[in-house]
Amino acid sequence: MSTAEETDGGSAPWAEVTPEAARRLLVAAVEAFAERGYHATTTRDIAGRAGMSPAALYIHYKTKEELLHRISRIGHDRALFVLEAAADGGGTAAERLAEAVRSFVRWHAERHTTARVVQYELDALGEEHRTEIVELRRKSDAVVRRIISEGVQAGEFDVPDIPGTTLAVLSLCIDVARWFNAQGSRTPDEVGDLYADLVLRMVAAKR
Amino acid sequence: MSTAEETDGGSAPWAEVTPEAARRLLVAAVEAFAERGYHATTTRDIAGRAGMSPAALYIHYKTKEELLHRISRIGHDRALFVLEAAADGGGTAAERLAEAVRSFVRWHAERHTTARVVQYELDALGEEHRTEIVELRRKSDAVVRRIISEGVQAGEFDVPDIPGTTLAVLSLCIDVARWFNAQGSRTPDEVGDLYADLVLRMVAAKR
DNA sequence: CCCGAACCTGAGCAAGCGCTTAGGGTCCGT
DNA sequence: ACGGACCCTAAGCGCTTGCTCAGGTTCGGG
User: Fold this and answer.
1) The listed CATH number (1.10.10.60, 3.40.50.300, 3.30.565.10, 3.30.2270.10) that belongs to domain B20-60
2) B94 partner at 20 to 30 Å CA-CA among A42, A72, A171, B102?
């Protein structure tokens, strides 16, 4: 199945993963996990996609779960980085919120293969690894909540339930990874713009 | 693991599934699939939760996949029924949209165990069964799109991108099944009210 | 020319998987 | 009293799984 899909989008995808053989395995694992899910993917499938024998996987990674952890960790780091960059970009709260949603959604759409694994295969991680990842997600939550809170205090926003609205905004963005299809009619930029508009409407002060 | 969880919420949960032994198995499968995912769940686990031997499962269901299909089919039927009831309830487009979101979200929160299986284990279905379910999902989409379109035509709503906004509304509601936690601080009713408010803001005409 | 480190493979092990089969209780109508 | 329909289990088959290990290939430095 699958030609090359798109290996994964944009700028320097997994450059930090070395050596090259380990990166090939990781990229293969991302594709396989995204297509079939972690539990339905076999180590033979991953190794095969990377053009290696099953045994080669265990030279670079201790277990299949470690592969998922590495993917999840790097993916969450990047998604959080994108969010924080927008939050620290300056401007009004509305401008910062719009930019945060726009770039966070764009990331989930452009890299939807990675994002699907990162966002929906969390339960397959072991206890320790999962708590580490959950901590990163709390930080994403804090970033969005902070922008919304500041917007409320500045009188830009009208938000009766700040934690609830924060949750809804993040939920909306994350779910893009589930339904986004590269062959579909929308580009990542278009989805980002649409979602930024929708979120601004959700928090807008009544006039 | 797990005491009784809550077997699944409210009114006559799986009454239409007979005989009783088949229902017990199905309820056990819903719990197991929701906790661990379809592929990580074994037939031995399902049978064990239902208090039977592994072989008993195959008297009532031909395969493990058939169990998932039955769950998915019934779940989608119910969710769609809830949506359509609200859509046909009368009133302004805003009232109907609010009620649709409120009850759809409430369903996903109250029955989040079932909903998680229904919404997130679709890929595990076989080709034929999956296309059958996808058809039901298209109907949900059509229901929401229709309300929004009518609201726009009546001048109640201002929605530049009707298909995109429809997608976002459904995505927001469905994702409740992923994060909702019965032990959390919010009741299904509260989440339903919050989300109905947020969605109305998304489509509201500017004043 | 050879050595050792780095990297990879073929073969396969123990365990667990979905599913089957032969047979045994239980309870009904007669 | 008893035959048969119904429902269940113990045992296990054939296969795949995650993972291991002994050994082969490649390559730079001496």
Assistant:
1) 1.10.10.60
2) A171
Binding-site residues on chain B for chain A (CB distance < 8 A) = 36-37, 39-40, 120, 123-124, 160-161, 164-165, 167-168, 171-172, 174-176, 178-179, 186, 191, 194-195, 197-198, 201-204, 207
Q: If we measure between CA atoms, which residue out of A49, A48, A46 comes closest to residue A61?
A: A46
CA-based angle A178:A180:A184, to the nearest 5?
Answer: 150
> What integer is the mean pLDDT of B31-54?
94
How many residues are present in chain B? 207
Considering the domain B64-203 in this protein, what is its CATH number? 1.10.357.10
The reply to whether B200 has its C-beta less than 7 Å from any atom of strand D is: no
B175 to A179: CB separation less than 8 angstroms, yes or no: no
User: Interhelix angle for A188-203 vs B162-174, to 10°?
Assistant: 70
Q: How far apart are CA A100 and CA A200, in angstroms?
A: 11
A18 CB neighbours strand C below 7 A:
no
Would the pLDDT of A8 be above 50? no
Proximity of residue B42 CB to strand C below 7 A: yes
| pLDDT grade for B6, boundaries at 50, 70 and 90 | very low
Q: What is the DSSP string of A165-200?
A: HHHHHHHHHHTHHHH--TTSS--HHHHHHHHHHHHH
Tell me if B207 and A204 make a contact (CB, 8 A cut-off). no
**pLDDT tens digits, one per residue of A91-143:** 999 999 999 999 999 999 999 999 999 999 999 999 999 999 999 999 999 99
- In chain A, residues under CATH classification 1.10.357.10 are 65-203
Q: Where in chain A is the domain with CATH 1.10.10.60?
A: 20-63
Residue A117 distance to chain B (closest CA, Å): 13
Are A147 and A87 in contact by the 8 Å Cβ rule? The answer is yes
Amino acid at A134: V
Residue A204 β-bridge partners: A157
Residue with tokens 């909903």: B115
The pLDDT tens digits for A52-93 are 989 999 999 999 999 999 999 999 999 999 999 999 998 999
CA distance B178 to B195: 15
Nucleotides of D under 7 A from a protein CB: 7-12, 16-22
